[in-house]
Amino acid sequence: MIIQPRTRGFICITTHPEGTAKNVHNQIEYIKSKNISAEGPKKVLVIGASTGFGLSSRITAAFGYNAATIGVFFEKPAAPRKPGTAGWYNTAAFEKEASEAGLYAKSINGDAFSDEIKQQTIDLIKKDLGQVDLVVYSLASPRRTHPKTGIAYSSVLKPIGEPFTNKTVDFHTASVTDITIEPIESQEDIDNTIAVMGGEDWKFWMEDLKAAGVLAEGVKTVAYSYIGPELTHRIYKDGTIGMAKNDLEKTVPAINELLADLNGVSYVSVNKALVTQSSSAIPVVPLYVSLLYKVMKDKGIHEGTIEQMQRLFEERLYTADGQVPLDENGRIRIDDLEMREDVQKEVDDLWKVVTSENINEISDIEGYRNEFFQLFGFNYDEIDYEAEADELVSVPSIS
Ligand code: NAI
Ligand code: NA
């Protein structure tokens, strides 16, 4: 079978196993090239470990610090003649390279919001690792079934108050248009989004892990957030998703209290805007990201998820002097380069003039599209996409 990219809406519905393995391999090589020597995590649980920031966190822990890793995610396995999801292949490739490097790596595929998957994870930690000293919480999901009530919540990406009109791009066609996004209809939209992307599930995880005695003395836990510039605030920071991120931040003191007797600590890290499966679904944001990529690449300060996670671990969570640099609100900031005044000024100037006619010159829309398809294993020069990929489709496995 020959596997080519096929898209439905913004989503790519096919994946290429060799290309996703290449993506993972490139990230591993990057981390190895950093020769990290400082003390870091040793036994790590990553919740949302198969793509995006979670995958890069897992790679950083394993190949930067020789950590044993357990990854939890929700992905579709490959079957004969039916490709699995990108996150499934990413994990198969990660586990293969980890095992070749003599690193412990096991994975749990299922709904991380459920009590059942939490229990399975606890059982696996008890059996193989005893305890974990770092828990990374990197879920991005449009839905959550609440484990105690059974209620199914769906998140929405909406502004609050007036309708929001701004520019947006269809990154497949590079067509720039105005879009008006209708605001929330009621408080329920906010509550539902908080139920899915807020801090409750992170807290449930930490409570269950603690009660089971599988958190080590001095354990750290980190969850990811985003703030971004003024021009996306109405749809992001001040919108429904931003309210969920505020809720995530408010969970930090509660988790700190929970972990106090273990001398444990929790953090929210504010990360950079990047091309991932989740962020490509947000209106306005892809146009901002393609202008941001252009400006940051020109300045030589562009980062992907792996560069971001390397800085998070080496320069924030596990510094030589043990100090974790925080902003005035107690958050880790690795969006510092994105938010630099000169970067934002240039993006702002470009934002005012960008149109379908000039987008190819003044933005990195091509880089955006390229990275998007690379998430699914496409657009790698080294790979022959006309070749039969049958052999590869169902061969990989995960443990
Ligand atoms: P992603 O879509 O690449 O990764 C999401 C992960 O969650 C995958 O491993 C997926 O399998 C897993 N997952 C989803 N639902 C699940 C479920 N029910 N059970 C188990 N696993 C499940 O997303 P991305 O972009 O890496 O996002 C991770 C975090 O980083 C999110 O909190 C997001 O808001 C945040 N973030 C993202 C930014 C971006 O530009 N992409 C910027 C800053 C923060
Ligand atoms: Na992730």
- The count of strands amounts to 13
Structural class: alpha/beta
SSE order, one letter for each helix or strand: EEHEHEHEHEEEEEHHEHHEHHEHHHH
Strand content: 15-25%
Bound small molecules, by name, code or SMILES, are: 1,4-dihydronicotinamide adenine dinucleotide, sodium ion
What would you call the shape? globular
Distance between the termini: 26 Å
Mean pLDDT: 95
Q: How many helices in DSSP terms?
A: 14
What would you report as the Rg, rounded to the nearest angstrom?
A: 20 Å
Q: Can you summarize the main beta sheet?
A: 7 strands, parallel
Strand adjacency order, main sheet: 5-4-3-6-11-12-13
Low-confidence stretches: none
Helical proportion, percent range = 40-55%
What's this model, at a glance?
This protein is an alpha/beta fold and 399 residues long. The chain is 42% helix and 16% strand.
Structure description:
This protein has 399 residues and is an alpha/beta fold. It has 14 helices and 13 strands. It has a seven-stranded parallel beta sheet with strand order 5-4-3-6-11-12-13, with helices on both faces. A hairpin with a 6-residue loop joins strand 7 and strand 8. Helix 2 (52-65) packs across helix 10 (305-317). It is globular. 48% of the residues are buried. 1,4-dihydronicotinamide adenine dinucleotide binds next to helix 2, strand 4 and strand 11. Sodium ion binds next to helix 2.
Topology:
Blueprint (H helix, E strand, L loop, with lengths): L6 E2 L2 E2 L4 H17 L9 E5 L4 H14 L2 E6 L12 H15 L4 E5 L5 H15 L2 E6 L5 E3 L6 E3 L9 E7 L4 E7 L5 H11 L2 H12 L3 E11 L4 H4 L6 H20 L5 E6 L14 H14 L6 H13 L14 E2 L7 H13 L5 H4 L2 H11 L14 H4 L6
Helix pairs in contact: 1-2, 1-3, 2-3, 2-10, 5-8, 6-8, 9-11, 9-13
This protein binds 1,4-dihydronicotinamide adenine dinucleotide (NAI) and sodium ion.
The site of sodium ion has 6 residues, from helix 2.
